[in-house]
Specification:
Length: 406
Amino acid sequence: MTKPPFPRTFYVANAIELFERMAFYGMFIGISLYLTNVVGFGDVAVGTILASFRLVSSLAPIPCGAIADRITFRASLILAFTLYAVGYLVMFLYPVKELALVALAFMAIGGGFMKPVIAGTVVRTAPEGRQTEGFAIFYRMINAGSVVGKTLVYVLRVAISLRWVLMNSIGASFAALGLAVFAYREPERGRGTATPLSETMRGYATALKNLKFATFLVIFAGFYFMADQFYVTFPKYVTRHIDAKAPLEIITLINPAFIALFQGVVTRVLAKVHPVTTMILGVSMGALSMLVMGAAPGLVGACLSGALFAVAEMTFSPRFYDYIASFAPEGKAGMYMGLAFVPQAIGFTIGGQVSGVMIAKYLPEVGTRAPLTVWATYAAIGAACAVAMIGYRLATAKATVTSAPR
């Protein structure tokens, strides 16, 4: 039986996702360097700024997604990429402190509109029975955008200068804006079914009253704390302590490459392991990755650490979303999945604040550096998270046995 084809808008949305990820990952891999070396912020200030940026960008999809349902997906995409393009342009043309903060705010809000709209387009346009395949294509676009964007900014940084890496983001944003204006068509399926924002927020509040669920969201934020260090600490660690001309963007491609090659294998191997146990393994592997980074301070250690963290991510991430969905009452899975941003918001926010202090003290631009202290601290935080998760696993298992009918 012939499968129904994906419509044109599905492919347009995925092309938009590709350009957006090119722009974002191309910018974000070097943003800590840009804010310090070009704009002039100190290490601690950069940590605080990026923590705030990650917090806003993690939370923005909630209200922006609700607004997008009302103003149409197409209008939301046009708004999103107008904000993106202006933000990247301002950062490039006027690299001064005040305007850099405005530019980052534009990017965060732009992402708040873009993320739910593209995911929503996949849901609305994928034919019945092909949604899993549709999201597989969507995730490939994310990884493809990461690979292309980071490769281009490496060339721009080495061939011209750090400031010019934003030309990749500017060009990709205008390309996405052009697709949104001239090629994207509003999906008809699912229109007119928007849930009021007030109702959505009440649903979130009810979900967070579940102590087991809320505890899970807080404890498991430790994984995202570690993940964020590959974007906040790693660029300064590589360029300051290893080699100013090291291909840091290329090194970070190890992560998407390993995931593309081995995610299926890891998922099959761990398919029968309890979700929380699997996530404990993922966090523990992440902590080991942090320790390797500091214990082997060189390009080989950095590459090995990146590969180990890719395994950690492949172990942790799929079961994380499965486990969140398991808390959802009938018909509430979508709302509960919306709370998947909470651990990211917590982990990224704390990660930015801690990294700024650690970089300033132990990875200064000039002076004695102690990379093992930095990465061992991150590893210790990851290990503490794993221990807390073991406690959570034991406590929830005991509660399940205690509450079982006799």
